[in-house]
Amino acid sequence: MRINLRQAALLAYLFFLLLPIYWLLNMSFKETDEILGVFSLIPDHFTMANYKMIFTDASWYTGYLNSIRYVAMNTVISLSVALPAAYGFSRYAFMGDKHMFFWLLTNRMSPPAVFLLPFFQFYQTVGLFDTHIAVALAHCLFNVPLAVWILEGFMSGIPREIDETAFIDGYSFPRFFITIFIPLIRAGIGVTAFFCFMFSWVELLLARTLTTVNAKPIAAVMTRTISAAGMDWGGLAAAGVLTMVPGVIVIWFVRNYMAKGFALGRV
Amino acid sequence: MEKWQNNRAWFLVLPVFLVVAFSAIIPLMTVVNYSVQDILAPGQRVFVGPEWYREILHDARLHEALWRQIIYSFTVLLIEVPLGIGVALTLPKKGWGVSACLVLLALPLLIPWNVVGTIWVVFSRPDIGLAGVTLNEILRIPYNFTANPIHSWVTVMIMDVWHWTPLVILLCYAGLQAIPEAYYQAAKIDGASRWAVFRFIQLPKMRGVLLIALLLRFMDSFMIYTEPFVLTGGGPGNSTTFLSQYLTKMAVGQFDLGPAAAFSLIYFLIILLFSYIFYTVITSYDKGEAK
To answer: Model ipTM?
Structure first.
């Protein structure tokens, strides 16, 4: 196969992308002594001990389960409220629509740092502190606006004649929305779900503040273990590698939606 | 496209409004409250009006952090957006390569932010890191990101480019995929150059996704906290202390709630202003093009 300039550029970029990840993987199969003592591109003493430690220690693996649970909740909540709203924004002009849309976006822009204390107090007052739903709701702050925004873009690409035809044919709004409209924008839904998952999965500051024991996310488990056990580089690397796994699974499911494109001009 | 005028559309938007209001308006009100009060003890508060705002606006170290932040955000935007468009154009359009590339590209985005910091610590440390050891031992460049401010700046920026360029690539790629094949065929018949295809077909079609990419990258780079915190801790000195870190230090470290709240509202307004400018410029350009 002939490799041209474009492919070479792409390969160079992918190389840059994978190099740090390769190093993390490499470290996760080493013992801490080897990491600190010897510089080796592949582990001299290949070991699974770091992974075994994570899968057998409940304080580690519950961190993963907690994270997955609130991320899933957040994705479901974000999508179910954002779908009708995005439809409203893309199809109708109503009083205050532009202001509302921009107000939503401003929530995506609010710096989380000082919201920590108000959030903490607020969720304790309403009795949701240290629950999965608290983190899921807090993450709605930045995920719902994003979901509305992305979905609105996809929906505006669908010609409005489709809606009109369906209403003339006697479809009720819910029936039209579920049986006709949602299948048309499923690529958009896939992409949106991916982004909601992503931003909720990687966020640490809010998730850590709103939880103590029951809903503690994996990223917070990691920071605590570093300080407690000195520098367990191997265990840290293995935990880091495992945080990538759920993401890879999700992107694997939506890859076709992203690749198929928006179906514009084909409907 | 003319929209239907209908105020009942509010019912469609209402759930979003309630969910976001639940986690935005109430905390925001608390922040506004703090910013005009001096909290002496729990339950004992004095109204101080704009005093905290005055104090914050005259804080020299804050001005430094602000400039650092602006330079940082614009530099990463200048690198990431063109690089993202460039890589999106090189991606294959069909075949097994598509899935492989998308999955690989999305990898950095799905890593929790503190882990991103950790990855770059272990990657660039002069004693155990691949990059650190290679630069020092093999290329004989005395590289140490914890001691040299320039090195730590470069490291934080490369980390940001590594971390976030894939977002720009994925959005641009999604935009490119939406262009019907007929456009390219028409361009071919007209004998359009590669550049003309990019300038008059691909770039206009990517405008929507580029707006999203630009805004997201600007906001997030302007609020960056976790990654540099893990990588450099804001140092050496204060050389990589960005606004969020300064703010968190103030609010959690010193518990200066009043100034911190005033600061966060000003911070928020700065982001709002920049984003509004981006938004208006791009959407008005959109309308100009459509005529």
So the answer is: 0.80
